[in-house]
Amino acid sequence: MPVPQPPSQPTDRSNATTDINPVLALKELVARLHREQHKIQDLLSSLGFALRSFNNLNQFLELIPLMATRVTDADGGALILYKPNGQVRLERLHCQDSSQQKIIRKALEAATSAIAASLTAAQLVPATATIDAQISNHLGANVQLFGTPVLVRHVERGRLYVFSGNRDYTWTEERQKLVRLVADQTAVAIENDELTVELRKKERLDRELEIGAEIQLQLLPRQCPNIPGVSLAAFCQPANRVGGDYYDFIPTNEDALKPKAIAPVSTRWALVIGDVMGKGVPAGLIMTMTRGMLRGEVLNGHSPARILQHLNRVMYADLENSHRFVTLFCSEYDAQTKILTYSNAAHNPPLLWQAATNTIKRLDTLGMLIGLDTHNQYENSHIQLASGDTIIYYTDGLTDAANQSGDRFDEENLIRAFQWACKRSLSPQLILEYLFDKVRQFMGSASQNADDMTLVIMQIQ
């Protein structure tokens, strides 16, 4: 009787195969995930490098659909942007299958045209549901579509779409996150480009303001003239680079404008100070126009009142259109007689320190702002000056200067400081420096003058 044999056991090779296959599969999965992760990191790193390197926004936007497609293994991507005029435009498109490029482009352009046509004047940005529905409808129901907004400063400026025709393709959370990341990079690029444009505009404007300030500085007297028996000092501190304050010393005869070598010393001079309501470039332009007209009037030999009347009539239309007005104090000093003739167009009255009586007098006449009414009338007045008499011409930037509490320096403080300086027989330059120092001390170091400040000191020797 044969001896029964024990049942056969599985070979060692079959056991090894059964145990090793799951391990190999897991290793392969991990390796594939690592490869995918490195690919995504490389693509996003390239996108970040492009964002830092490209100066041309269009070049950068060219990469966006391509990158979004690559990092998600999709069939294609499209970047659609909203324009300020309400236009919805297909900005960039990428398809893995180039043969499908024309078909998809045509579908997307038809969708964006339909979206733009549905917008109203009050709605320049399409609703998210509307644009997603239109894009999906034109691409077809078999396309797996995902879209995310491009947000610039919390405002939706477009949408980034990625699509696939593979039925088994799914928009996992990881893929959606990657598309949003690319869209965020797109928003950063658009914002950077707009900031660059704004910066260039600001640089251009700054340069124009510098040129305007240089021109205006050249139009103001470079130094005080030599008037017989008179000592002068003057300074203008604009609130901005271009200001609306103006002062001038104009000889009343044309010979005094000739080169010093051949010009006789003029004994009659017009001393003028003015202020355009407002500041900055518009005020500076109006004051430049005023200066040209005023110089012509002075050289024609007109009296201060007649000069103001002519200026008002000529400038009325331009000032009315610009909704601005000009205050102007016009005076003429005769060095031989020491008589000052003056007329005021609603400017701050100059202050006269009379040395003989130790008193202060305001030099004022009736007269409205230049540009307020074409029929304004102005009047002349005159005063006899004596040795030691001192006059300050100023603009309201000094008296309106405010401290941190909002209190104004006002005319009383200016008179008090002026009186103190005159009693100590200070020179015009020292008086000017002292008055400006008093105003700055009143304002405090943290404050800046909100209006142009101009001061002219005239002292009879």
UniProtKB/TrEMBL annotation:
Residues 227-460 form the PPM-type phosphatase domain. Pfam families: SpoIIE (PF07228). GO terms for molecular function: phosphatase activity. The keyword Hydrolase applies. The keyword Hydrolase applies. It comes from the Bacteria. Keywords: Hydrolase. SMART domains: GAF (SM00065), PP2C_SIG (SM00331). This is Guanylate cyclase.
